[in-house]
């Protein structure tokens, strides 16, 4: 009916037909705030309470359920959709993305709900699944052309289809690690973890790692368990931050810090950047996972690009640590092996 810009998409004389003939046979109606104003007769919809009143009125037209989308509501930092179904309200809250890739949001949302209903889901579950799909679609939309770029409704599907490949890649990389005992030289006191993210990762649940970490056992390293998603937070946060600057950098592994490691990286022509944990703002320290995100961003900004290795020299009670970054888990492991061989005094040619 009405585009996000406010432009009408339906002739005014057709609104009467929509209300009298189409909505009464609809299972779910998904108006944005502007459309809800026209359908409900409420002059101005800006708050959650306004949207609830509108949803009730639209429901009276005969629709089984109404979702008033929250893109235009006054909810700073949040996009809250309001579902009215079976006489009850349910709010679906998500992050509001300050991006220009929003063209097609409403169509994708409605289509996703229809698809989920066709699969047998109940209306609330269908709306929840559609909300998640659209969040990925907007966040990872296509930045092309001028004005509002299109959303990417396939983003979440690409993510799901890549889960097997990410786990398989991590298994292969762990085998490589365990086959090169020299890597044990790089193990920090907190032990290592190796992670790899899905292509459209949002948080640590989209990043696979090793539960219990990769431990040093005599002069070798061993994974404590098979890789699984959500197994790492600290290394995952570093990778997630790196992906904001370069989406191709999807893997990372923490190792110890030493000046010798930095010199080895220099010999290998690896790009290196660090940050000072002593300068970490107090408000960052209070947030779970804030340090690694802040530190990675500081190091990336300092270099102007995502480096091969990010390091810090520690702080009171905090061990100095480095993190190797790369496009894949095997890429990261190969970098680690090369660094370790140089520390051992050998030439890493045979692993190039």
Descriptive notes:
The protein is α+β, with helices and mostly antiparallel strands and 352 residues long. The protein folds into two domains: 12-139, UDP-N-acetylmuramoyl-L-alanine:D-glutamate ligase (3-Layer(aba) Sandwich), CATH 3.40.1190; 162-351, L-fuculose-1-phosphate Aldolase. It has helices spanning 12-22, 33-40, 48-59, 105-118, 123-139, 155-178, 234-245, 259-267, 282-285, 290-303, 329-344; strands at 28-29, 65-68, 78-85, 88-95, 194-197, 207-209, 214-217, 220-223, 228-229, 251-256, 272-275, 309-312, 321-326. The strands form three sheets. Strands 9-6-5-10-13-12-11 form a seven-stranded mixed sheet, with helices on both faces. A hairpin with a 2-residue loop joins strand 7 (214-217) and strand 8 (220-223).
Q: N- to C-terminal separation?
A: 59 Å
Largest beta sheet: what is the strand line-up?
A: 9-6-5-10-13-12-11
Structural class estimated from helices and strands: alpha+beta
User: How many domain modules?
Assistant: 2
Main beta-sheet annotation: 7 strands, mixed
**What general form does the structure show?**
elongated
Q: What is the ordering of alpha helices and beta strands?
A: HEHHEEEHHHEEEEEHEHEHHEEH
Report the strand count: 13
CATH architecture of the largest domain: 3-Layer(aba) Sandwich
Please tell me how large the radius of gyration is: 25 Å
* CATH topology assignment of the largest domain: L-fuculose-1-phosphate Aldolase
Counting DSSP H or I runs of 4 or more residues, the number of helices is 11
CATH C-level of the largest domain: Alpha Beta
| Low-confidence region ranges | none
As an assembly, this protein is single chain
Mean pLDDT: 93
Strand content: 15-25%
């Amino acid at each position: 009916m009405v585009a996000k810009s406010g432009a009408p998409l339906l002739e005014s004389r057709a609104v009467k037909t929509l209300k009298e003939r189409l909505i009464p046979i609809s299972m779910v109606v998904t108006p944005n705030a502007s459309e809800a104003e026209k359908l409900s007769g409420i002059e101005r919809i800006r708050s959650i309470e306004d949207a609830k009143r509108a949803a009730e009125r639209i429901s009276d037209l005969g629709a089984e359920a109404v979702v008033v989308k929250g893109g235009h509501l006054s909810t700073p930092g949040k996009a809250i959709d309001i579902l009215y179904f079976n006489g009850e309200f349910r709010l679906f809250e998500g992050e509001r993305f300050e991006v220009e890739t929003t063209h097609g949001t409403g169509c994708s949302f409605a289509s996703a709900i229809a698809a989920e209903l066709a699969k047998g889901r109940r209306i609330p579950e269908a709306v929840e699944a559609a909300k998640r799909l659209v969040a990925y679609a907007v966040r990872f939309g296509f930045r092309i052309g001028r004005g509002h770029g299109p959303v990417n409704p396939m983003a979440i599907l690409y993510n799901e289809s890549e889960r097997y490949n990410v786990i398989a890649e991590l298994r292969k990389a762990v085998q490589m690690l365990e086959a090169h005992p020299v890597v044990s030289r790089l193990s920090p006191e907190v032990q290592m973890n190796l992670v790899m993210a899905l292509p459209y990762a949002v948080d640590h649940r989209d990043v696979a790692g090793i539960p219990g970490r990769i431990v040093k056992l005599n002069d070798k390293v061993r994974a404590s368990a098979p890789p699984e998603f959500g197994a790492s937070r600290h290394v995952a946060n570093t990778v997630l931050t790196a992906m904001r600057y370069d989406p191709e950098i999807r893997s990372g592994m923490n190792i110890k810090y030493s000046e010798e490691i930095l010199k080895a990286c220099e010999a290998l022509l690896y790009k290196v950047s660090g940050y000072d944990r002593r300068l970490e703002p107090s408000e960052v320290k209070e947030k779970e996972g804030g340090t690694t995100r802040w530190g990675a961003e500081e190091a990336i900004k300092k270099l102007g690009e995502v480096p091969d290795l990010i390091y810090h020299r520690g702080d009171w009670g905090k061990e100095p640590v480095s993190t190797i970054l790369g496009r894949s888990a095997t890429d990261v492991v190969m970098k680690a092996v090369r660094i370790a061989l140089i520390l051992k005094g050998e030439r890493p040619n045979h692993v190039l």
